[in-house]
Design a protein that fits this description.
The protein is 32% helix and 23% strand. With 328 residues, it is α/β, with parallel strands linked by helices. The chain has a single domain, classed as Rossmann fold. The protein has nine helices and 13 strands. It starts with 11 loop residues before the first strand and ends with a helix.
Length: 328
């Protein structure tokens, strides 16, 4: 297979793979969509499970040429006049003649990236329905710069703000946020800060208790060492990386009680009861305790964390929610 093509104008034509988990191999991440010379290398020490070459194949959800569908744009992150990182963004503008419809902004989960199966499915459905669709990789993930060691909720919110500015500049400032896990939790906080521009939130297993989950994973002794040393090695079936204690400190600074009183955006929260990463009770508690009442919860009693096996049903639920509340 030919290497990932890069255009002279800096766009990267990314590739999307669809293979069973048993065909995945753990390798060090390496890609050409990197930070400029002198900037920190993207995701040092970060390892992710990707398909071996023989297993890679492209998925096609639309009749458009592959090169047109997979064009990435690069948002530089500059500090003191020097680029220190970047965000990889893919924006599919709304079709002409569809009016002033809001744009979907997809937010991936912890250790994931914007080219996942659900994201590509929702992109295709949104475009078929006449909406613009944007996705990006949070820093430390996918084709963006930065590393997981510096991951915090605050950094994620700053990444979202940069992408929102990018979309405003293209006439798409009104957003429907579509978040998965960590992306859903980040989106809830972002909505509370920018309620005037967020039309709705559609979130799958929003991670509202990420700090609690990480500390439970670490256990008391390793959590103590994590705090003392400032870092810990995290590994699950998807990623193997270093996480900083600043992630826990930052999450603790974002009090759920504050979010419950500030949140003002209509939201559909979709959750699986068999989810071992995000407690369905935490999602239900947020919906029932929030002072804003335009929040619906859909619980799949037999659903897992990802809910990828029922993505068609997820899209139907989302459209019913948006249309039923006259949000689109």
């Amino acid at each position: 297979m030919a290497p990932m093509p890069i255009r002279d104008d800096g766009h990267v034509l990314s590739q999307d793979w669809a293979v069973p988990a048993r065909d995945l191999t753990t390798v060090a991440v390496s890609h050409p969509f990197s930070s400029p010379p002198g900037a920190p290398s993207p995701h040092p020490g970060f390892r992710r499970r990707i398909p071996p070459l023989a297993s890679r194949r492209r998925r096609c959800h639309s009749p458009e040429p592959f090169e047109e569908r997979c064009r990435m744009e690069r948002i530089p992150i500059v500090e003191n006049g020097r680029e220190i990182s970047h965000l990889a963004v893919r924006f599919d503008p709304p079709p002409q003649g569809t009016g002033e419809r809001p744009c979907f902004l997809y937010l991936h989960g912890f250790g994931s990236e914007q080219s996942g199966e659900k994201a590509e499915f929702f992109r295709a459905r949104a475009r078929e329905a006449g909406f613009g669709f944007c996705s990006f990789d949070f820093q430390g993930h996918g084709l963006s710069g930065g590393d997981m060691l510096g991951l915090t909720l605050t950094r994620n919110l700053e990444d979202m703000a940069r992408v929102h500015t990018f979309l405003r500049d293209r006439g798409c400032g009104r957003l429907i946020l579509l978040g998965s896990s960590m992306g859903g939790g980040t989106a809830l906080w972002y909505s509370s800060l920018h309620p005037e521009e967020i039309v709705a939130g559609l979130h799958i297993a929003p991670a509202l208790e990420l700090a609690k989950g990480l500390l439970a994973w670490a256990g008391p002794e390793r959590a103590r060492l994590w705090e003392e040393t400032g870092r810990i090695h995290f590994q699950n079936e998807f990623v193997s990386t270093e996480l900083g204690w600043t992630l826990i400190e930052d999450l603790r600074a974002h009090l759920t009680e504050t979010l419950l009183t500030r949140y003002r955006t209509p939201a559909l929260l979709i959750q699986g009861k068999l989810d071992t990463s995000v407690s369905w009770k935490s999602v239900a508690e947020f919906a029932t305790c929030c002072t804003f009442k335009e929040i619906e919860v859909h619980l799949f009693a037999d659903g897992d964390h990802r809910l990828t096996d029922r993505k068609e049903r997820l899209w139907v639920l989302m459209m019913e929610f948006l249309q039923g509340r006259a949000l689109i």
